[in-house]
């Protein structure tokens, strides 16, 4: 039952995005993803401010999620904070240790400038990112193990929050969702 509910949430997010641009979901291509130990980046600090989502922290290891079209996400490993304010008077905030971000390849540089991080080979971070992706990738913008590319200006953050557990924040210009996978509850939804 839970698996069906999670699948329904992911499909609803994707269907709303596809419907918004009148593209049938069956014609949207999906792409295999790669996470490589040789593409890992180290950042002394991270500050992401995209849409209504802010992520910040010091000393992060970042593992890019790549497709043949380019980077469509990243796994962030470290200690950080997040704030998501989808509307006035409604804010979700807390601390996290790990997050998986998903975004359009065209937005990648405005979300996270990977080239500004120190490129390292980190097999441990890559393995940890594989585990995070295995657990969270099916929460948004996917077709099985392949990536669907989110629409431009969309962002999804699957955060492992100290206060809330595993939460998904997914938003674009028209829709927004905050879902807590730990308590199996939708905390916010705007269609």
Please write out the topology:
Elements: H1 2-20, E1 30-31, E2 40-50, E3 53-67, E4 70-87, E5 90-103, H2 108-111, E6 118-120, H3 123-136, E7 142-143, E8 146-148, E9 155-161, E10 165-171, E11 176-180, E12 185-190
- Tell me the β content: over 45%
- Biggest sheet: strands, sense, closure? 9 strands, antiparallel
Portion of residues in helices? 10-25%
* Helix/strand class: alpha+beta
The number of strands is 12
Order of helices and strands: HEEEEEHEHEEEEEE
Give Rg in angstroms: 15 Å
Overall geometry comes to globular
Which strand order does the major sheet show? Answer: 6-2-3-4-5-9-10-11-12
Low-pLDDT runs: 1-23
The helix tally amounts to 3
Q: Ends: how far apart?
A: 24 Å
Mean pLDDT: 87
């Amino acid at each position: 039952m839970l698996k069906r509910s999670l699948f329904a949430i992911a499909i609803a997010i994707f269907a709303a995005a596809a419907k918004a641009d009148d593209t049938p979901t069956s014609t949207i291509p999906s792409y295999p993803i790669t996470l490589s130990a040789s593409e890992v980046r180290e950042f002394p600090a991270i500050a992401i401010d995209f849409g209504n989502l802010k992520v910040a922290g010091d000393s992060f290891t970042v593992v890019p999620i790549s497709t043949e079209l380019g980077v469509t996400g990243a796994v962030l490993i470290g200690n950080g904070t997040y704030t998501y304010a989808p509307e006035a008077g409604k804010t979700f905030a807390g601390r996290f240790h790990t997050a998986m971000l998903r975004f359009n390849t065209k937005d990648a540089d405005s979300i996270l400038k990977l080239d500004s991080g120190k490129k390292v080979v980190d097999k441990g971070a890559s393995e940890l990112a594989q585990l995070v992706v295995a657990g969270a990738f099916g929460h948004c913008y996917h077709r099985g193990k392949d990536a669907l590319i989110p629409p431009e200006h969309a962002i999804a953050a699957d955060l492992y929050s100290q206060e809330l557990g595993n939460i998904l924040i997914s938003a674009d210009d028209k829709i927004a969702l905050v879902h807590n996978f730990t308590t199996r509850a939708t905390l916010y939804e705007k269609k």
